[in-house]
Fold this protein.
Amino acid sequence: MADFMYLFWNKDGKSKMEKASPEEIQQIMKKWMGWMDALKKSGNLKDGGAPLEMTGQVVHGGKKSVTDGPYAEAKDVVGGYIIVSAKNIQEAVELSKGCPILEGDGMVEVRPVLKM
């Protein structure tokens, strides 16, 4: 088994949660928890990760200059991550297809974690 990081990207820096009513948020969270529970039960969920705030700072290059917001120039932003274990990248990609973010404009980036 190998480890893969799922990075959850939101189009235009906005998730469905930002525009949702409290009832819709509850339904969205139920879908996410169901998907994560299925990954856990199958033994594929290694680290439940965390959602990321839409604020932050970026340190750039040799001068180590700092800018606000990692998303200042980007229209797509990383909203969170988890780590899964899978036999290979094909299985990791297949598992990612159940992610609720794919019901909207979001996407899942599947990246192998380099063993050190």
Remarks:
- The first strand starts at residue 2 and ends at 10.
